[in-house]
Design a protein that fits this description.
Radius of gyration: 32 Å
Strand order of the largest sheet: 8-17-16-15-9-14-13-10-12-11
Distance between the termini: 64 Å
Shape: elongated
Number of strands: 17
Length: 548
């Protein structure tokens, strides 16, 4: 009897829904278009609607068609209002096969003999559609009984919504509605997040291509961590003449970076021996500069501890870079070892320390590091940044994959961005530069990513004022420093690497709470798009367009 009552009740409910759907709208105001022009009628709003979220009962013939993340139009024909929304948290039920309705003993083969299927969903309301077109925020609540349509022909609906045109990166996955990135997002920073294989580099490349086409005053520097996604010019068909690729293993390193690398390779703690090694690097640079510029004078004054007549440190580093750019600065292993020993003696280091560092130079660092790795470097970052500001090339790609040492990669990112800031503050004008950091969790993590993290954090805080934007691409949300994440205003996110990344994303962004079961289903090049750059400001599922 209980099952019969359920079936009878469901039949009445089904009949009521059919009546509601078949009602002729009594629109309070006249519209020049019908929701049926853009999609099919699939259900009605049920009781419990709010301004931001409305429950929907899906009609039986649409149950196999409605999907989460489809765009929806709610037609409140009684009040003459229409709303744009997104289907969320859809569930299918069957009153006859409910776990509490089935008897203790039942035959699975006959479980569909009595079936009463139904489907519930929610529409997250994004905007209200104006009678004259366009969309706006609204606190209005759709009435129960309002018709709900799915959007299938978004290309036609775009003329009604009047969304602003910007950087074209793709279409809504289900609606074929073009959703462009507002160019203002370039100054306010963008994050592209997703697991390996989700298509992050293609999305970033789509954004860059649009900047090259539509924002001719912008210049771009890309830090390519792997050397696979951006440094290959064959992937930039039609833009080859605008791009310059720089081998990071040819970049001239600052003395403190050289000292860090040597200490790391020795296996020592920086806090104990970095000052000794840094001082030895400076004295080696001083001796080579003097030897190249004035061999006779150098022969007379060679030695350490002298200060009268020495080159001032700033001038010394300038000459070091000039000689390196001309291929005249060379690193000699034996000479460096001798200079290190002499410097340590002048600093009154213990003989045990001197012998230890000398042996570690031989056993752990070696001749090849100095005479092959270091001597080949001739690209000066100052010169590259100057060329970028002078529009020699609109895109500079730094291939970091050729640099073996992580500390050197980190320092190169720091040196580039620091030099850009120095130039900005010298010129006191907008830079119109975008820095793209690939595998950003290696340079923006909360701990262990200095000095790159600090300069990136500064850019995230202050860059918008000077037209200096960031695009950070990363597999890991949880590894991005909170002070950087908090200043990112446009986010694309796809499948996450771990559940911890999803939880961090949910705590960071609004509107992610309904996506726990949707994110793992996304295919490559499918991203949720939210934030300042999204004209609708709510997470929308976008299929990224094809790129080379």
């Amino acid at each position: 009897m209980h099952s019969l009552f359920i079936l009878q009740t469901f039949a009445l409910l089904s009949k009521d829904i059919s009546v509601l759907i078949s009602q002729t709208p009594r629109s309070v105001c006249l519209w020049s278009w019908s929701p049926r022009d853009f999609g099919r009628l699939v259900g009605v709003i049920t009781s419990g609607a709010r301004a931001s979220l409305a429950p929907v009962r899906i009609s039986r013939d649409a149950m196999d068609y409605v999907r989460d993340e489809m765009l929806a139009i709610i037609d409140d024909f009684l009040e003459g209002r229409r709303f744009l929304g997104v289907f969320k948290s859809s569930t299918k039920k069957d009153l006859a096969i409910d776990a509490n309705a089935l008897p203790t003993v039942f035959d699975p083969d006959k479980s569909h003999s009595f079936s009463a299927p139904l489907m519930h969903s929610y529409v997250e309301i994004i905007r209200e559609i104006g009678s004259g077109g366009g969309v706006s925020l609204s606190f209005a609540i759709p009435r129960p009984g309002s018709h709900v349509y799915i959007v299938e022909r978004g290309d036609a609906l775009s003329g009604i919504l009047k969304l602003p045109q910007g950087l074209f990166i793709g279409y809504h996955k289900f609606a074929n509605l073009e959703i462009d990135v507002n160019p203002i997002a370039l100054d306010y920073h963008i994050a592209v997040l997703g697991a390996t294989g989700s298509g992050k580099s293609r999305l970033v490349k789509a954004i860059i291509e649009e900047v090259l086409r539509k924002a001719p005053n912008y210049r771009i520097v890309i830090f390519d961590h792997t050397g696979v996604d951006y440094a290959d010019l064959s992937r930039w068909i039609g833009f080859e003449n605008s791009i310059s690729v720089i081998d990071s293993s040819n970049i001239v390193l600052e003395p403190d970076v050289i000292a860090d690398i040597i200490v790391d390779q020795m296996g020592l703690r920086r806090s104990e021996h970095q000052d000794y090694v840094y001082g030895a690097v400076i004295e080696y640079i001083r001796s080579v500069v003097e030897e190249v510029e004035s061999p006779l004078q150098q022969a007379k004054t060679r030695g350490f501890g002298r200060r009268n007549g020495d080159i001032e440190l700033g001038e010394l580093l300038k000459k070091y870079k000039e000689l390196s750019s001309k291929g005249l600065f060379k690193w000699d292993f034996n000479q460096f070892v001798n200079d290190l020993e002499t410097y340590l003696k002048n600093m009154n280091a213990r003989q045990q320390t001197i012998e230890k560092l000398r042996l570690l130079l031989y056993t752990r660092v070696g001749r090849a590091f100095f005479e092959q790795n270091m001597s080949r470097r001739s690209t000066v970052i100052d010169d590259v940044v100057t060329a970028l500001f002078n529009d020699a090339k609109r895109v500079i790609i730094i291939d970091l994959s050729t640099e073996v040492e992580y500390s050197a990669k980190n320092a190169i990112v720091y040196q580039f961005i620091k030099k850009i800031w120095d130039t900005i503050l010298y010129k006191r004008s907008r830079a119109n530069i975008i820095a793209v950091v690939d595998e950003a969790h290696n340079y923006c993590c909360a701990y262990g990513c200095d000095p790159a993290k600090d300069i990136i954090a500064r850019t995230s805080r202050e860059g918008r004022k000077w037209g200096f934007g960031l695009i950070l691409s990363s597999q890991r949300v949880i590894d991005l420093a909170p002070e950087i994440r908090g200043n990112i205003n446009t986010v694309f996110f796809s499948r996450m690497q771990t559940s911890g990344d999803y939880n961090e994303l949910r705590n960071w962004l609004e509107g992610v709470e309904y996506m726990e079961y949707t994110l793992p289903l996304l295919s490559p090049r499918e991203f949720f798009f939210t934030g300042l750059g999204n004209p609708l400001r709510r997470p929308l599922l976008v299929k990224v367009r094809d790129v080379a």
